[in-house]
Amino acid sequence: MTIEVTDRAKVLVEALPYIRRFHGQIVVVKVGGNAIEQRKEETLLDVVLLRYVGMLPVLVHGGGPEITAMSERLGISAEFRNGLRVTDAKTMEVVKMVLTGKVNPDLVATLNRLGGQAVGMSGEDGPSIIAEALDSDLGFVGRVTHINPEPITALVERGYVPVIASIGLGYDGNAYNINADTVAAEVAVALGAAKLILLTDVPGVLGRDQRVVTEIKRAAAEEMISSGQVSGGMIPKLQACLRSLDVVPYAHIIDGRTAHSLLLELFTEAGIGTMVTP
Q: Is 237 a catalytic site residue?
């Protein structure tokens, strides 16, 4: 498809109000999993562009598929309860090895290669993410009790893009595996972000007609969760959006499989996916 020169100019002009509005503002983006694997280059190129036009992106990532694959290679069977990975001591070692030893460095290296300045960290660094056990039956699965923003803002203020692995540190000295959507929401709240964007591998939140709901208010989102209209992995994503709305004006759930989905959501009037508002 050929884009005329005038159409290219229109695209840039359409983006201008959004660039002006969010210049100097923090945008927390959750990446990882199947979505980032399909569009890693395009997504991270979007992040670099956001930084160059004056926005302040902060990345949070998980790595569920990679953790499962490595566990299987090591002969450790994966067990899930209500969508959460049961994490014993051996599995926690795998989580740390994969997230901080493979996924995080890969994201940082790609961002730097594409012209960004990125620094990798986990919640244990600083420490920036304080956690406690979510349920004793789940082992080292954690919930966030506190975010220490200083290590993150120190990187942002020096022009770096922080890339944060979703591992927290407990007061008991143990590391905890935390849902990356939850971590992204808590980080967005602590940093006073202008937006929270969750990249996923579905088009967005689906209504009863199975079409994407382009915008949903807090009360309607809560009703979708309580009524069982949404299920599985979409529940923690919607809950993360609702949590962020305590501070963050807008939260988005978008399809990370779409090329340059971040730019489409941030810089076009139509956007893509679902926007959750107060």
A: yes
Active-site entry in 116, 237, 271, 273: 237
Catalytic residue among 63, 64, 142, 168: 64
Active site annotation includes 30 = yes
Q: Which helix (H) or strand (E) holds 61?
A: strand 56-61
40 catalytic per annotation: no
Q: Of 94, 88, 87, nearest to 70 (Cα)?
A: 94
Confirm whether 64 is a catalytic residue: yes
Query: What is the tens place of the pLDDT at every residue in 240-249?
Result: 999 999 999 9
| Burial grade of 216 (CB within 10 A; 0-12, 13-18, 19 or more) | buried
Rounded mean pLDDT of 5-9? 75
CB burial of 224-244 (b: ≥16 within 10 Å; e: otherwise) equals bbeeeebeeebbbbbbbbbbb
For residue 2, pLDDT beyond 80: no
How many Cα atoms within 13 Å fall on the side-chain side of residue 204?
24
Instruction: Let me know if 125 is a catalytic residue.
Output: no
Q: Which amino acid is at 136?
A: S
Of 46, 125, 181, 255, which is the active-site residue? 181
pLDDT tens-digit series, residues 25-53: 999 999 976 666 778 899 999 999 999 99
